[in-house]
Amino acid sequence: MDNILSGIKPTGQLTLGNYIGAIKNFVKVQNEGESFLFIADLHALTLPIEPETLKNNSRDIAAYYLAAGLDPNRANIFLQSDVPSHSELAIILQNYLYMGELSRMTQFKDKSSKMKEEAIGLGLFAYPVLMAADIVLYDSKRIPVGEDQVQHVELARDLVKRFNNRYGEVLVMPKAEIAKVGARIMSLSDPTKKMSKSDPKGDIYLNDSLEAIRKKIMSAVTDMVGKVHYDVSNQPGISNLMTIMSSLSGKTFEQIEKEFEGKGYGDFKRAVADTVVAELTPFKQRYEEIIKSGLVDEVLQRGASRANQIASKTLLRVQKAVGLYHK
Ligand code: TYM
Predict the structure, then answer these.
(1) Which of 153, 156, 204, 239 can bridge 176 by disulfide, Cβ–Cβ 3.0-4.6 Å?
(2) Is 111 part of the annotated catalytic residue set?
(3) What pTM, to 2 d.p., does this model score?
């Protein structure tokens, strides 16, 4: 069984996009191999963030993982910063990725486009290097992510090819896995844009109240067509709501179209809101219980201990391969 790895960056409140595009898939695959599901806290430092916010967001992601159904006896849940091999390996791997390819990364271009060059941190530019280190450390072949992270995983694949060509079969080749439906949930206020962690109107946050979630869905941008039909180019808003409904209920697009034939957008939106609320109600309850229980610290500690075991072996293999003296 192949190892599985993925992570989430604790930069802001998690969205329904993170939940559908990532967390739900983590839960699905957790029994299919040893999984390493971490909180990418070092990555969160690539843009300014308050220490307390980073700390609370990190704890929340661990609690959300558990609330969504990750089993800490099967999945290794840990903080990236609790496993020093991530940073050590990144220092080595940065020599095998190049300025040109890093500057072509969409995420870097998006995040840096509004910044003055003097203000762009080196960490933001080198983000994919650390991410490549994350990916290769656990010999994982399977990397479940949303669509926006595929380019980074592809870069990690290029790196593995390059590194192994030079030093032999040292690193395992990873591959991005994206969900058939829901790999790119769009903003409710502008359905041509991805739902991100920074657009309060268009995002559904996992910590929004159920009422606020309903309201946001009821006021989601739609179109003038007046028909519940999956057509991303002409009906991006409706298609996005259909995607949300389909990925949470398991209904196909055809089933949804049939169910709402001849009905108005109001009815459809209410049903989408019901689906989301039905999914998030028990999830939010479990989250509250987990936060109160103190389970998070115990889980993170256990996860880090196992992660360190595996990661330090890979790091040593790389150190030996490149000829670091005495290794
Ligand atoms: P991050 O924190 O931006 O997002 C976490 C996961 O959620 C997915 N996602 C979405 N999926 C569907 N629709 C959306 N609107 C949406 N928004 C986000 C992302 O694709 C991702 O899977 N660089 C990563 C964190 C990371 C990582 C790694 C991931 C660090 N090291 C190694 C995999 C492997 C990030 O910023 O994800």
Answers:
(1) 153
(2) yes
(3) 0.97
